[in-house]
Amino acid sequence: MIIRGSGTVLCHRISNISGGESVEEAYRITRHVCPRNCYSNCSLLGFTRDGRLEKVSGDPLHGYTKGKLCPKGFNYVNLVYHPERLQTPMIQEKRGSGKWRPISWEEAIDRIAGKIMELYRRYGSHLSLALNKYSGNFGILHQAVEGMFNSLGPTTRAVGSPCWSSGLDAFYYDFGGHRTSDLEEMTQADTLVLWGINPVWTSIHALPYLYRAKERGATLVTIDPIYTATAKKSDLYIQVKPGGDGALAIAVAKILVEKGEIDFRFIAEHTVGWEELRSKLESIPMEDALLQAGQRR
Asked: How far apart, in Å, are the Cα atoms of 236 and each of 123, 193, 197, 253, 283?
């Protein structure tokens, strides 16, 4: 089954079904974590009867997702039992032919192991390999492939991804480290700036925190070239020119400097290069920055 982390759990009584049975009596309920490459790490409840998964729902006991899932999470039953799902290894009869036939796991493992050993005998400790995987599963077995190849000798591994590692790099470049705030802190903010993000579509579990902040009277500001679903729910929408985010950031920084609203103590303790940046800001006319950002003063 594609959902990992199976284990019987004790759940509170959810509802009654036909025949007077409770959900807990009718199903074997197991707790899982969604293995997709997503930051939410949603907790799932799988409802199995007679060895067949019949339903997937969110786990209401999860402190962040609180029982809510995206459409991909609810679709797991269809994914597991889809008639076109591959259930055996496939081999292409002739390279480039596009004609595939199923083979047994034993034959697949023998073929793969044989090819690896053939290359190992040919190249010795210079075994060439570009190894990369981002399946969304970062459990104990994630490093098993590296361990197996390391037992043969030095190998070359391609690192990085368009998601996780690039996101970390963005954190380091923008904030100097990989640190984030607790989502609960958003509910206490007076102003929330959503710059280039559309949580209505891409971060549904963050929405309750945004709504709670708005209920407290917080101002919601969205900066985006596109008038998104999040922009529609915002108190202020700033439509930046595509590619003009950096110019807008420069304009904002110049205004903060002009108004004396810079926290110099924080800058001294947590940043480097402030004097160089300040000199650069002074050399850029405000009109030029606003023009590139598609804004007017």
From this structure: 62, 9, 14, 19, 30
- Tokens 């790490």 locate to 41
What CATH number should be reported for the domain whose range is 28-81? Answer: 3.30.200.210
d(CA 108, CA 161): 28
- How far lies 64's CA from each of 7, 155, 177, 184, in Å? 21, 39, 23, 10
What does the pLDDT look like over 1-17, one tens digit per residue?
222 233 333 344 444 44
For residues 31 and 40, is the Cβ–Cβ distance under 8 A? Answer: no
The token pair at 122 is 């040919």
| Distance of alpha carbon 108 from alpha carbon 88, whole angstroms | 9
The CATH class of the 165-293 domain is alpha beta
**Which residues are within 8 A (CB) of 152 and not within 5 positions of it... i.e. 6 or more apart?**
116, 120, 127
**Is residue 258 within 8 Å of residue 278, measured between CB atoms?**
no
Global confidence as pTM: 0.69
Q: Is 14 exposed, middle or buried (0-12, 13-18, 19+ CB in 10 A)?
A: middle
Listed by start position, the domains of the chain span 28-81, 90-157, 165-293
Amino acid making up residue 113: A
pLDDT digits (tens, 9 = 90+) for 127-140: 666 666 665 556 67
Q: H-helix or E-strand containing 30?
A: strand 28-33
Say if residues 74 and 34 touch (Cβ distance below 8 Å). Answer: no
DSSP 173-218: HHHSSS----GGGGGG-SEEEEES--HHHH-GGGHHHHHHHHHTT-
